[in-house]
């Protein structure tokens, strides 16, 4: 499989017939894999944008009968540059990070695509969508130039739960141990932007240098302060792309409770990609 993908390396994308042969071979490989397809049944169309502006299009059905190329209406459409598609198939790029960055666009059933992507192997053996790739630093880099409208769409769709869970799971890695050894603080996050109008609640506690995260926190979970904001603003805030003072003034976020405690939380957290506490979770 790796040899098949390398035939479409970024430096030599080949002609349409060559690309079709490789795609058919990849689909055949998936269909004849020793591991049967156990993911969701769905029809996915891939629109690969070529450098000259045209597109290659392939439609694939995933189901109990296997993985096959079809001529059918899709439940979900994936659009991305051909070079990014090659990187994705080879395992050198991750689907969720490409989606966050805006390189990859999804139209239709995002949840089905996520379930397929986390099961579908690349040439390197890793899945097309790998939760391990969603560490805060990688996500921070991915969203750096993303439009607000795009991030809002991502954080109201099928990828929201995966992004939130992975960012919060890795948040303790960004505590500055020497700063946090005598700190006791609990900060709540109420994150809006869900399509059902509800919020996701997380609580982050630092107690004598130890950081813990409570997912699906109860409304009455005791905290020193709570940050209330939309999903896309949460990503910008927690990953160092939103100045909190500017966010409060503009109405992008609100803080309920002890502001001084929120600042204390900030002082022991570093922004992903930076060793400086002053560039931490609640400030830049």
What is this structure's SSE topology?
Blueprint: H1 2-6, H2 16-31, E1 42-49, E2 55-63, E3 66-69, E4 76-81, H3 82-90, H4 95-101, E5 105-108, H5 110-117, H6 136-143, H7 148-154, H8 160-170, H9 177-180, E6 184-192, E7 200-207, E8 210-215, E9 225-230, H10 231-238, H11 244-250, E10 253-257, H12 259-267
Parallel strand pairs: 1-4, 6-9
Antiparallel strand pairs: 1-2, 2-3, 4-5, 6-7, 7-8, 9-10
Helix pairs in contact: 4-6
Short description:
With 284 residues, this protein is of the alpha+beta class. The protein folds into 2 domains: 2-132, Nonspecific Lipid-transfer Protein, Chain A, CATH 3.30.1050.10; 161-279, SCP2 sterol-binding domain (Nonspecific Lipid-transfer Protein, Chain A), CATH 3.30.1050.
Description:
By secondary structure, the chain is α+β, with helices and mostly antiparallel strands. The chain folds into two domains: 2-132, SCP2 sterol-binding domain (Nonspecific Lipid-transfer Protein, Chain A, 2-Layer Sandwich); 161-279, 2-Layer Sandwich (Nonspecific Lipid-transfer Protein, Chain A), CATH 3.30.1050. It is built from twelve helices and ten strands. The chain has a five-stranded mixed β-sheet. Strand 2 and strand 3 form a beta hairpin. Helix 4 packs parallel to helix 6 (136-143). The model is unreliable at 275-284 (pLDDT under 50).
């Amino acid at each position: 499989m790796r040899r098949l993908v390398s035939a479409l390396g970024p430096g030599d994308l080949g002609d349409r017939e060559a690309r079709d042969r490789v795609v058919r071979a990849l689909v055949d490989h998936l269909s004849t894999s020793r591991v049967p397809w156990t993911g969701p049944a769905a029809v996915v169309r891939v629109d690969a944008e070529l450098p000259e502006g045209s597109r290659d299009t392939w439609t694939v059905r995933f189901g109990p009968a296997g993985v096959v190329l079809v001529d059918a209406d899709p439940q979900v459409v994936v659009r991305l540059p051909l070079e990014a598609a090659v990187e994705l198939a080879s395992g050198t790029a991750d689907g969720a990070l490409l989606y966050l960055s805006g390189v990859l666009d999804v139209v239709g059933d995002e949840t089905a695509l996520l379930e397929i992507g986390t099961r579908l192997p690349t040439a390197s053996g890793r899945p097309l969508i790998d939760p391990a790739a969603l560490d805060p630093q990688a996500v921070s880099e991915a969203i750096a130039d993303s439009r607000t409208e795009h991030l809002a769409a991502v954080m109201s769709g099928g990828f929201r739960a995966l992004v939130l869970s992975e960012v919060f799971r890795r948040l303790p890695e960004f505590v500055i141990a020497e700063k946090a050894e005598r700190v006791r603080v609990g900060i709540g996050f109420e994150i809006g932007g869900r399509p059902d109008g509800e919020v996701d609640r997380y609580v982050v506690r630092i107690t004598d240098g130890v950081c813990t995260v409570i997912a699906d926190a109860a409304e009455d979970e005791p905290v020193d302060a709570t940050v209330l904001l939309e999903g896309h603003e949460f990503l910008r805030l927690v990953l160092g792309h939103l100045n909190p003072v500017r966010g409060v003034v503009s109405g992008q976020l609100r803080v309920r409770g002890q502001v001084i405690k929120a600042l204390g939380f900030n002082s022991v957290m570093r922004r992903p990609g930076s060793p400086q506490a002053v560039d931490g979770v609640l400030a830049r």
